[in-house]
């Protein structure tokens, strides 16, 4: 069983705090924390992680005794440019947060991975800071993906830990041109495991995505230690809001990203293994709705 705490709120700071508290989270104190946000582009949330969400996570981690905090990312346009456009750099500096631009990593800091039975032709690479993080926090958004991924939640978030190109090979071209894109996304996640996943669904794309799309008010923040459970709840939220046929007509654990991740043992393998809890009394209504979606699956 994997616990997922769900907060119903339109306030990001409140949602982050209450969802983490409901997990009874341990282990942050004294750790060097690396946060991986969704900064693929600088588009407004849910096109990218909302600044308020990231700052609320930072504040919560400091309050729980983190020894240091770094935000690390590899974006689609140049990473530094995306962070500057979002206006996040001075806000992180005010909170004594280090910024790690994965674009600046050396060749040796993109570590080759050659897992057995991978759908990647010649394997892939992972940013060394992700593999060696003492405490890894991932934070994504609630949205669909119109370019073959179907969903872009916590599993898809980690495409940003793989380089665009390295040593003359274009990893992103292979990913986005592959008919097995969803399986490739899941397989990126196998070499590492976040200690905490926090998802922002206050705003959602129920169609389109990942940068722009048809918007809906999800009014949800959820937290867990299990990427598969995080994405299962994310798809349940999209179903509850009303999404495109690829979401509405496919059982949650038949979504190929989720199915492949479960096959790899990265998290839960069925809705029965998701222990959904309301983060607080104000979240009971949404909790009941999402629990019912999961039961129907």
Characterize the structure shown.
The protein has about 300 residues and is α/β, with parallel strands linked by helices. Helix content is about 35%, strand content about 25%. It has a single domain, classed as Rossmann fold, CATH 3.40.50. It contains twelve helices and 14 strands. α1 (about 10-20) packs across α2 (about 50-65), α8 (about 180-190) packs across α11 and α9 (about 225-240) packs across α12.
Tag the structure with descriptive keywords:
12 helices; two-stranded antiparallel sheet; globular; 34% helix; Rossmann fold; alpha/beta; 297 residues; single chain
Question: Brief description of this entry?
Answer:
The chain is 34% helix and 25% strand. It is of the alpha/beta class and 297 residues long.
> What number of domains?
1
Radius of gyration: 17 Å
CATH C-level name: Alpha Beta
Mean pLDDT reading: 97
The third-level CATH topology is: Rossmann fold
Q: From the structure provided, what is the oligomeric state, counting identical versus distinct chains?
A: single chain
In terms of DSSP E residues, the strand content is 25-35%
Distance between the termini: 16 Å
Q: In total, how many beta strands?
A: 14
Which residues form runs of ≥5 with pLDDT under 50?
Answer: none
The largest pleated sheet is described as: 10 strands, mixed
Q: Which class of secondary structure composition applies to the elements?
A: alpha/beta
Helical content class: 25-40%
CATH architecture: 3-Layer(aba) Sandwich
